[in-house]
Amino acid sequence: MKELENIKDHILVCLSSSPSNKKVIDTASRMAKVFNAEFTALYIESANKMSRDNELRLQQNTEFARELGANIVTLSGEDIAFQVSEYAKKSQVTKIILGRSGYRPNRLFTPPNFVDKIIKYSPEIEIYIIPDKAQKMYFGQQENKKNKFSIFSYPGLTISILILLLFDYFFTEPRFSLAISGFPVVFLILFVFVYFVAIINQKQKDAMLREIQLTKEKEDILQAKNELIIKNKQEEMRSTLLRAISHDLRTPLTGISGFAEILLKNSNILSEDKKQHIYSDIYDDSIWLLNLVENLLAITRFDKNEIKLNKESEYISDVIRDVVSHLGRKKEKFFIHINVEKENLSAYMDSRLISQVIFNLVDNAMKYSPEGTNIVIKAEADGNDLKISVIDEGAGISDEDKAKIFDMFYTVNNKIADGRRGLGLGLALCKAVIEAHGGKVNIMDNKPCGTIFSFDIKSDVENNNE
Hints:
- The two termini are 75 Å apart.
- The protein has 466 residues and is of the alpha/beta class.
- Mean pLDDT is 77; it is low at 1-5, 105-109, 133-153 and 414-421.
- Strands 3-2-1-4-5 form a five-stranded parallel sheet, with helices on both faces. The chain has a five-stranded mixed sheet with strand order 7-9-10-12-11.
- Helices cover 50% and strands 16% of the residues.
- It has helices spanning 2-6, 21-35, 52-67, 80-90, 114-121, 155-171, 184-248, 250-266, 272-303, 316-325, 351-367, 399-402, 426-436, 461-464, and strands at 10-14, 38-45, 71-76, 95-100, 126-131, 312-315, 335-340, 346-349, 374-382, 385-391, 440-445, 451-458.
- It folds into four domains: 2-147, 3-Layer(aba) Sandwich (Rossmann fold), CATH 3.40.50; 151-225, no CATH class; 253-307; 308-464, 2-Layer Sandwich (Heat Shock Protein 90), CATH 3.30.565.
């Protein structure tokens, strides 16, 4: 179907205040029906003012085109032919229908008229000319004398002729007269010379104006393209998030509802130990959901640039111990060590967000490490920075995964101890928080096995030196 749409004809007709524009519109409408084509009527609005009669005629022609099923489009510009051509290219127009009088300009002494320009600008588009001796190209204005060549339409030419006449009047014999008996040939040569110089100057000016218009249009197109890319990325992220949530929330929610149902129906026959085990499972699932929602809300705020850091000088040892106290029952299955170089190590930080970073890193280490292994949370001074590391003894992370692990929604394929697959938000959030603090997150191998996640933030140097 897409291929058929790509080859479908698109017919364009130009709206004007010309009396015979209706004939051109009607012809274009008939062609659109024959070719089963899309039908567009284009009006180029210029700075030149129209008379009341022309305004009324333009309205009538526009309404006539609308009644015949045309899609009405209005653009602004001074080089009408160029604007029509650019719109035709961008809109994949295959045929342009134009009106034309029986008058054909002299190619030597006049610049190309409107139709000639359209043919020049759009060689790949079929151009159909509807002859009519009464046809005039108004295009929303009275006959534009700038589109016709005359002595007075080019200031440079007028000035040049004036200079020739002054030269003849003051410096040639007989002086103080406009007689040219002394140098008719020279005068003719100079006249032809300045004539063509004026034409060239005007063409250069027109070319420069077209270049400016084209540059602006390219910038507008680029801006629109970038906005579309951003919008598509946001839509893609939203779709990915919805898919991930629908998949990854099902497991803990199913567990909570299932355990709750068991307690409701079998509470009288369950032993106290069995009940405690079910309570613990419900608690673990609810904590997992709570952490997921916290990460989701935080990363969404960062993506919208709505986050504000509340930095204060905090002792890193207090922050780490607070994180460990909130790790839940899972921490009992590991040997977690806190290694702080000095108790008074402190840094300017948003302690809530830094706590969430450390929590995510430790939680990630517990997910991918065997039970009974060591997890070390280390803090040390590194020049004017404070370096925090989380070291585990898990299976490690491949080089391929290391390059992508901080991307949103990316998860490694290593087996997770509790069987849950995360949304891939935790490490993306870590990166966003640390970069907002002016730091950087690093990842490296822990020899002989495991992974080291580390990040640095600016330390409170004065407090650390006390």
